[in-house]
Specification:
Length: 163
């Protein structure tokens, strides 16, 4: 009987069809509580970097990656080879306020810090605001998590750029 040498045309084939045990990363949902999953992934990434003495992508370490809800967003970023802190940016866009961009904003119920949570059209593009209740919104200043009704939301512009 002759042995057959398999050729893998891509990394995906190697991960799925190579012999031996598989490493599976399954991430659950839960809104902004996905930040806990990201914190664990950042720690795993750091441990792997230290162990191998180089940067390790989690996509290269795990053979199968999947999740539900927020976990699926994180899993997608991991599977595409992004570092785990990229997933945190996807989950918490309020940390990245772009200059001159309009945002829907609410004031934190705990410390009154403005929380930009979603890009918005300018007043010229859409004079009347239309949006829905937003749940599990975390304040970047005091980390208070709450649900906000549309009546509490307003539109604000990011800081002006200086040339």
């Amino acid at each position: 009987m002759s042995s057959v040498e398999l050729e893998y045309t891509c990394s995906r084939d190697y991960h799925l069809f190579s012999s031996g045990p598989k490493r599976i990363l399954a991430l659950d949902g839960g809104g902004l509580r996905g930040a806990i999953s990201v914190a664990f992934l950042e720690r795993i990434e750091k441990m792997l970097d230290d162990h191998y003495g180089r940067k390790v992508r989690l996509a290269d370490f795990f053979d199968l990656v999947g999740g539900t809800s927020t976990g699926a967003i994180i899993a997608g970023a991991v599977a595409l080879g992004y570092p785990s802190n990229y997933a945190e940016e996807l989950l918490m866009p309020s940390k990245r306020v772009e200059p001159n961009q309009w945002y829907f904003v609410v004031d934190c119920a705990n410390c009154t810090e403005p929380i930009p949570f979603l890009e918005a059209p300018s007043p010229e593009e859409e004079p009347e605001l239309t949006h829905r209740t937003i749940s599990d919104l975390q304040c970047p200043r005091c980390e208070h998590v709450d649900t906000y009704a549309p009546a509490l939301m307003y539109r604000a512009q990011g800081p002006e750029t200086r040339h």
